[in-house]
Specification:
Blueprint lengths: L10 H14 L9 H13 L5 H5 L18 H14 L2
Length: 90
């Protein structure tokens, strides 16, 4: 992971996060929302080299990324926030 001496995000962890997104993101437009695309971008930065190909299919061209529409709840934002908190540590 970025910063300090944290280990890169393992392939299994990336798979688990993507599975969670697949299960909790129900609106098709969410897949091009800045909330979700920002999370994917952060995982790509943090991921171990062998995990990066898993994220490739989620890449959205920047011209197609839509602004947050303020969904409540926003599953991608909630999962991203949990991820950042775990990454930050105690």
């Amino acid at each position: 992971m970025a910063g300090g001496n944290r280990k890169p995000l393992a392939k299994g962890d990336v798979e688990a996060l993507l599975d969670r997104l697949q299960g909790e993101v129900t609106r098709p437009e969410c897949w091009s929302c800045e909330c979700l695309t920002g999370f994917i971008a952060q995982m790509k930065v943090d991921a171990a080299q062998e995990a990066k190909p898993l994220l490739a299919k989620y890449k959205v061209p920047s011209a197609q990324i839509r602004a947050c529409t303020g969904c409540e709840p926003c599953p991608p934002a909630a999962i991203f926030a949990e991820y950042l908190m775990r990454k930050r540590g105690p």
